[in-house]
Design a protein that fits this description.
Layout (H helix, E strand, L loop, with lengths): L8 H49 L3 H5 L4 H16 L31 H4 L6 E4 L13 E4 L10
Antiparallel strand pairs: 1-2
Length: 157
């Protein structure tokens, strides 16, 4: 009895079937990896938005922003929120884009890098940025990060 050789019709059909199965496995794996990436980016955006909204609407945030020294009141709260939520940064800024809080104190008082103008107009904005980690507990990375500026509405007066 003769075995299957690549030269026989049956051998050629078998080789094509093996090739098709391998290509399907590679395509399915690639699709799963891409879907997981999209899902993780969406989860990061959702998480950043939820934390930003919660921090902005939490008791004392609006009143702290109206004081003469908002950093004194907001910096400890922002850092505690950042640590508990395991985020790279929680930054509070005024309507001119000047930071009141930042995990690296040397950035407090400096202008935001992100586009803050739509937020001042009441729009919710999310963006993904590429850059080193802002957290002190992690080494710098080139991962994508989601940012979600959220407006804090203060009562007039």
């Amino acid at each position: 009895m003769r075995g299957l050789s690549v030269r026989s019709i049956a051998g050629q059909v078998f080789a094509v079937q093996v090739l098709v199965v391998c290509l399907l496995i590679v395509a399915a794996t690639t699709a799963l990896i891409l879907q997981a990436r999209v899902d993780s980016e969406q989860e990061a955006i959702n998480r950043a938005t939820a934390v930003a909204q919660t921090f902005a609407t939490s008791p004392g945030t609006a009143s702290a922003m109206r004081t003469d020294h908002p950093t004194t009141l907001l910096q400890p709260r922002a850092e505690e929120t950042r640590r508990r939520a395991r985020l790279d940064f929680v930054v509070v800024a005024n309507t001119h884009g000047i930071r009141y809080t930042h995990p690296k104190p040397q950035y407090i008082g400096k202008t935001l890098v992100a586009d803050w103008r739509p937020v001042v107009k009441g729009k919710i904005v999310t963006e993904s940025v590429q850059g080193p980690s802002a957290g002190k507990s992690r080494p710098p990375s080139r991962s994508r990060r989601a940012t979600a500026p959220w407006p804090v509405w203060c009562a007039p007066g």
